[in-house]
Amino acid sequence: MTTERLARALVVTESYWGNTAAIADVVADGLRNATIDTTVVAAADAPQVIGADVTLLLIGAPTHNMTLPNPASRRIAASRGVEAGRTGVQEWIGHLRLDGNPAIYAFDTHTSKFSGSAARAITKLLRRRRIGAELGECFLVAGEPPALVDGELQRAASWATQLAGRGRRNLATDPR
């Protein structure tokens, strides 16, 4: 009797104005439409150990001061009226352990290509821990409060279609 393994994705996010969370939700919906079991979780609530059943791991955060949010930038966000937790993606990566070998992609929201990239910071932190990760997509926000630029949710849906194929390929090459 053979049991077929299904592709499974985990999307870990940090979001303050709802933009990064909106991207995560659209991507998750696209993956689910491609029959990939997908869970979205805030970094503060994300598991520290990613099980071997996860074939695709997406990590997203807003860009704060040209990099990942940190305690100081979270205090600034809180002073602007958003609910900001004490921990986020940066701290979660510090405790992350992988039991399997998922394909990992980082994504972010930012105001321009000159404003830095939380996604680049995510890949850099992971690589320092000898965890391979690829730079995914960067989504634009504008205004005050920041909101996603027109067309970014559609780009997120298109990216989900691309990711679905990658998640399945990773499953096919995994020897388990």
The name of the CATH superfamily reads: Flavodoxin domain
Radius of gyration: 16 Å
Widest sheet: strand ordering: 2-1-4-6-7-8
Task: Classify the beta-strand content into a percent band.
Answer: 15-25%
Beta strands, count: 8
In total, how many domains does the architecture comprise?
1
- Unreliable segments (pLDDT under 50, ≥5 consecutive)? 171-176
List SSEs in N-to-C order. Answer: EHEEEHHEEHEEH
Shape: globular
Helix fraction, binned, reads 25-40%
Category from helices, strands and their pairing: alpha/beta
- According to CATH, the fold-level topology is Rossmann fold
Biggest sheet details? 6 strands, mixed
* Oligomer classification: single chain
Number of helices: 5
Mean pLDDT across the residues is 90
CATH second-level architecture: 3-Layer(aba) Sandwich
Summarize the structure in words.
By secondary structure, the chain is of the alpha/beta class. The protein has a single domain, classed as Rossmann fold (3-Layer(aba) Sandwich). It has 5 helices and 8 strands, in the order βαβββααββαββα. The strands form 2 sheets. A 6-stranded mixed β-sheet has the order 2-1-4-6-7-8. A hairpin with a 4-residue loop joins strand 7 and strand 8. The relative contact order is 0.22. The C terminus is likely disordered.
List keywords for this structure.
single chain, 176 residues, alpha/beta, Rossmann fold, six-stranded mixed β-sheet, two-stranded parallel sheet, 5 helices, 36% helix, globular
